[in-house]
Design goal:
- The complex is a heterodimer.
- Chain A is built from 17 helices and nine strands.
- Chain A is an alpha/beta fold.
- Helices cover 64% and strands 5% of the residues of chain B.
- Chain B contains 17 helices and four strands.
- In chain B, strands 2-1-3 form a three-stranded antiparallel β-sheet.
- In chain B, α9 packs across α16.
- Classes of the chains: A alpha/beta, B mainly alpha.
- Chain B: Its main location: membrane.
């Protein structure tokens, strides 16, 4: 009787109760604590070894402009140093990268930060407050901030003053209402002002503010000359704010997206690093600034107004603790020469004197003197 | 006009009157409209899907192939390595130290000086020669012709999207070029040169991450579902838990990323970018889905089964493990696999915990820094070199195939073990 009832219950499931499914479930039930234990063991293992302890791979964060160069360095490092662990390189943007870098000394914090502008004095102070006061500053090369249009575009030629009048939030103290390029300079064509550029966290955006807008502001409003040194904050509010009414479009950290937008809209302008201009020479062309076109030669010689240095900052305290970090830094100096692999990928080599100084900083581990920053 | 109150014998409807005909036509038209609307909706979604797949396959298919250059190579006198060195564990180092890379570049310079010489070769060309030598050491002693991968601009020109210079080089090289399956795409990790970049690093990262997610989310999710359905008393607390779980399943994934950043990296100091942290974060995200699917599957088991088992003297735990769980398992597994598929395609929370890094080797352990497939796609789509466009599409195809396989497994499990209650 009872046997029959059991069978009845079993048949509902179309499969015998004592069959494979039930055994499978029992095996599963036996595995649960095991899986849990494994998970927890891994956690504990990590809690002990992950944070404060040693780390055997190099970590770099920072600028999306320098990211491709640092990845090449990482690849060469891996190929030349036997048994090296693969370095971990994250593209976070310069500002966010410096914040991560400055959060402290130890395995939990990155060893290197790629910066497409110089460290600011305030950022250094923040670093020092967390114990990161011994920093190597290595200039790996130069980049140009390029203004570009599609090949079938109108063939613009701009000056920093034009760009300031077109893109600043309040040129001459009045809200910017210019709609056409002709509004800012009668010599320019009557097409709408539409510029795709980097977001506020980007080093390229800082370069736009410091190299182009500042110069344009000083040209348009001569009373701001020297204000940069006297009162940087007031200068930034007055000269370096971008308009927010849609004429300047923040295109995110994805520079390929800007190139695509230019291709589909020939009247728009794009702002990105020179490397992207070079790689996409079949689609876009550089716009001359003050009559100087962005080319390798003009940026390297400093004739192009939008040239900026690119830096890698390293923590001196990590040089000893992280295996291979010294060799990694030396790898930069082996690759940054004119004609070298980094230059083939779009970097512009720094002048020989700058390269010698940077190589000496790496060789003798000379820490940055904060007094040179501003 | 009939008086409403008067009981009149009902007249048969006259379908032939114009008013009635109009009415009927309208009804048929409404029916047709609705059917067409439904059909249009299906067609539109099918068209979108087809467009997505067609573009991906059209752009990505060439990502699985590589262009090879038949390189005449005579290494006699250029590379001196002993047989013992070649058989030892340090063969790679020995060959690199013996100047193999320079020898390969020099061979290209000698064979194709007019077309660009060593600039024709991929960064990884000498690695292909190295592996060939390790398999057949006699290559060092005889002049041979080895097909090696070409540089990315030549590769792109051979595939039809090149600059004028590279297209001229391709035309000049003619039959020296050939096309073949890019095996290193399936075995390599991320690289700066698109001809060397591979998907295995990201795929392995995804698999490790999913392993952690499954090992955590499945047992905890199933146990929670069992407890809530079979044991928990019905009161305000269980109601609260139920509402919380439903809410948790609807929370945007980026929030879980922030949680993972604060808890696993901030409090527990786990390694940034590690597959284990990614797995833990995604487990948090997947768990509510498994609990909800599990509870639905357990509720669907008829109470008569439990009553029958109890009546025969089974203990509650025997009821659960001998009867309820086996019958509910197909539903639970389907829910689990759908939750895992969602976790596999997730990017946002992983960006928060640093799994967006360039890593030139596949992860070996759970704690090694890793990337996952969707993040790799994101990274490649952002790369400046045009050669990465097809690699991006190829990686998307790999991701879609993995997702398809997981969904296929879910359908198989459902059909294999599903029980239809009569």
């Amino acid at each position: 009787m009872s046997h029959g009832a059991l069978d009845e219950g079993c048949r509902v499931g179309e499969r015998p109760c004592g069959g494979s499914m039930s055994r499978f479930v029992q095996a599963l039930a036996a595995m649960l604590p095991l899986a849990l234990a494994c998970g927890l063991a891994a956690c504990v293992d990590q809690a002990a070894g992950g944070g404060a302890g040693a780390r055997d791979q190099i970590r770099a964060v920072g600028s999306s402009t320098i990211y491709p160069f640092t990845t090449i360095v990482a690849e060469r490092f891996l190929a030349t140093v036997p048994h090296a662990r693969p370095p971990v390189i994250e593209s976070t943007g310069t500002g966010a990268g410096i914040r991560l870098f400055c959060a402290g000394v130890g395995a939990a914090h990155p060893d290197l930060v790629d910066a497409s502008r110089r460290l600011r004095r305030g950022e250094y102070a923040e670093c020092a407050r967390h114990g990161v006061d011994q920093i190597l500053e290595v200039q790996i090369g130069i980049d140009g901030i390029a203004f570009a249009e599609a090949l079938q575009g109108p063939g613009m030629a701009l000056t920093p003053a034009d760009i300031y009048r077109a893109l600043a939030a309040a040129p001459l103290g009045r809200r910017n209402t210019a709609r056409l390029w002709r509004d800012v300079n009668p010599a320019l064509p009557a097409i709408p002002i539409q510029v795709y550029g980097p977001p506020a966290t980007s080093g390229t955006r800082d370069a736009l503010a410091e190299l182009i807008l500042a110069k344009g502001c000083e040209a348009v409003e001569p009373d701001t000359l020297g204000m940069h040194q006297r009162d940087p904050n007031a200068f930034a509010t007055r000269c370096q704010r971008l308009r927010e009414d849609g004429a300047y479009v923040d295109a995110g950290e994805n520079d390929n997206l800007i190139v695509q937008k230019l291709r589909s809209n020939p009247n728009a302008l794009g702002i990105f690093g020179y490397g992207y201009l070079e790689q996409n020479a079949g689609v876009v062309r550089g716009i001359p600034l003050s009559g100087v076109a962005p080319t390798y030669a003009t940026i390297a010689s400093g004739a192009y107004p939008g040239a900026r240095p690119l830096f890698v900052y390293a923590k001196k305290a990590h040089l000893r603790a992280i295996p291979g970090l010294r060799a990694f830094l030396r790898q930069y100096s082996a690759l940054w020469s004119a004609g070298g692999p980094l230059v083939k990928r779009g970097l512009i080599a720094a002048p020989p004197a700058v390269q010698r100084r940077a190589a000496a900083i790496i060789a003798h581990e000379v820490a940055l003197d904060p007094r040179v920053l501003h | 006009m009939n008086k409403r109150a008067a009981p009149v014998a009902r007249q048969p409807t006259d379908w032939q009157t114009p008013a009635m005909q109009r009415h009927v036509r309208r009804r048929y038209a409404a029916e047709r409209r609705f059917r067409l609307l439904g059909l249009a909706a299906v067609c539109a979604s099918a068209a979108f899907l087809f467009y997505l797949l067609a573009t991906m396959i059209a752009q990505g298919a060439s990502g699985f192939t590589e262009t090879r250059l038949a390189l005449p190579l005579d290494l006699r006198g250029h590379v001196t390595v002993t047989r013992a060195q070649l058989n030892g564990a340090a063969a790679d180092l020995a060959l690199a130290g013996a100047g193999l890379e320079n020898a390969v570049d020099a061979a290209a310079d000698r064979a194709f000086p007019a077309q660009g010489g060593e600039a024709l070769l991929s960064d990884g060309a000498w690695l292909r020669v190295r592996d060939a030598i390790k398999r057949h050491p006699r290559l060092l002693a005889t002049p041979v012709t080895i097909p090696v991968p070409v540089a990315t601009d030549i590769d792109m020109a051979y595939k039809g999207i090149g600059t004028p210079e590279s297209e001229a080089a391709v035309a000049a090289l003619g039959t020296h070029l050939s096309r073949g399956l890019n095996v290193s795409f399936f075995t390599g990790a991320d690289a700066t040169d698109p001809t060397r970049a591979g998907i295995w690093g990201a795929l392995k990262g995804s698999l490790l991450t999913m392993l952690v997610t499954l090992a955590l989310a499945f047992p905890i999710g199933v146990l929670s579902a069992l407890y809530l359905e079979e044991y928990a008393p019905r009161n305000r607390w269980t109601d609260l838990i139920e509402v919380s779980i439903n809410n948790l399943a609807a929370v945007p994934s980026i929030i879980f990323g922030l949680l993972g950043l604060a808890v696993f990296l901030g409090t527990f100091h786990m390694p940034r970018s590690g597959a284990i942290v990614g797995g833990l974060t995604l487990a948090l995200m997947t768990m509510p889905v498994i609990v909800i699917a599990g509870r639905n599957a357990i509720t669907a088991v008829p109470p008569s089964i439990r009553d029958a088992a109890r009546a025969l003297g089974a203990s509650p735990i025997q009821v659960v493990f001998h009867h309820v769980l086996p019958l509910a398992l197909p539903g639970i597994l389907t829910g689990t696999i759908i939750g895992m598929a969602r976790a596999l395609g997730e990017t946002a929370p992983l960006l928060m915990i640093g799994m967006r890094a360039f890593i030139a080797a596949p992860p070996g352990r759970l704690t090694d820094p890793a990337t996952v497939l969707p993040v790799q796609i994101f990274l490649w789509s952002d790369d400046v070199q045009t050669g990465f466009v097809e690699k991006t599409s190829a990686a998307i195809i790999v991701l879609l195939v993995v997702l398809l396989a997981m969904n296929g497994l879910a359908i198989y499990l459902r059909n294999r073990f599903e029980t239809r209650w009569k």
